[in-house]
Amino acid sequence: MSRPFFFLFSVYFGTYTTANCIDTLHAAKHDLPTSTVSSTTTKFIGTTIVSTSLCVYKDGIFARAYGSSLPRTPVPMISYALFTFRDAITVFASFNLPSLLAPRLTHLSMSSFPVLEHFLGSETRSLKMAQMLCPALCQFVTTPIHLLGLGLHNRRQRIGIRERIKMIRRDVFVATPLRMVRIVPAFGIGNVVNVSLRSSFMPAYELPKV
Asked: Which UniProt keywords apply (predicted)?
């Protein structure tokens, strides 16, 4: 197993395992169906901590390995902070926001946009749609943060904020679609598949309360 693949696998395996465990504990505690997808603060905090820790560590290694000008220089703390903020937004959009939006999307399709009922006519359909769209759409917010974090590592010479904004504007229109293409399989399709597999693999009997 190559090192880049190992680090990517670790990020997604750790993130999904944490989300599934928290969902299962939440279902057991509140006597809910085992397939319940929660949107609790505990899930956000736990998944964010695991995902961000793994992802920031991975990005630090990748930045040192593939950085254009300073491949052996430690990644500055400001870059780590920006990567952490970026990942917190991504985690919320991938694991918490879809289950919050699903009921609203279903109600909206049935009351105001009947043409969308085929896609959003039930909370299950709405949840899958939200799981696909939310991680992709959040890239409009997270990509500039990602580019700023990389820029602060790769270009450490004194550059004014206007110049850095100009560089982000130059790269963001290319980087955003590329990051969408990357995130949809990972946290869009991956999340839909994860929820379906978890629902089918969970035992049919009632979970003990915790």
From this structure: Signal
Residue 208 placed within a domain: no
* Range(s) of the domain holding residue 156: 3-201
Smallest Cα–Cα separation from 134: which of 21, 10, 37?
Answer: 37
Structural domain tally of the chain? Answer: 1
Examine residue 209 and state whether it is found in any structural domain, yes or no: no
Structure tokens at 156: 């450490």
Question: In 3D, which of 152, 139, 189, 138 has the Cα closest to residue 78?
Answer: 152
Q: Is residue 210, in this structure, part of any structural domain at all?
A: no
- pTM here is 0.81
Structure tokens at 78: 């400001």
Q: Which residues of 33-66 are buried (b: 16+ CB within 10 A; e: fewer)?
A: ebebbbbeeebbebbbebbbebbbebbbebbeee
**Closest among 149, 159, 14 to 76, alpha carbons compared:** 149
Q: What mean pLDDT, rounded, does the chain reach?
A: 83
Q: What's the pLDDT tens digit per position in 149-178?
A: 988 887 767 777 888 889 999 999 999 999
Separation of alpha carbons 47 and 86, rounded Å: 14
